[in-house]
Write a structure and sequence with these properties.
Length: 87
């Protein structure tokens, strides 16, 4: 798993955009505050369900792999000249 430049910022962007996507899709989210790992899993499962992501093998579904999958996903959604993608 190759680490991308600005991976932390890309992950935060993926969480923000992913949570907005979940709400627009009509998913009700818990009223309690969620950790970043919980948000990541919710977004990952939603994107897999919507066929926007290829699911990880069951034995690879862990925090770092989900985080990386979301970073790759958001990298492909952003325009090529986005500040987080520019070297």
């Amino acid at each position: 798993m190759k680490k991308q430049k600005n991976e932390t910022k890309l992950f935060k962007a993926a969480l923000k955009i992913g949570m907005a996507f979940a709400i627009k899709r009509g998913y009700s989210l818990p009223d309690v505050p969620l950790s970043d790992s919980q948000k990541a899993e919710i977004i990952y499962r939603l994107l897999v369900e919507q066929k926007m992501l290829v699911p990880l093998p069951a034995d690879k579904e862990d925090g770092p792999n989900i985080k990386h999958r979301l970073v790759v996903w958001i990298s492909k959604q952003l325009p090529e000249d986005h500040p987080l993608l520019v070297d």
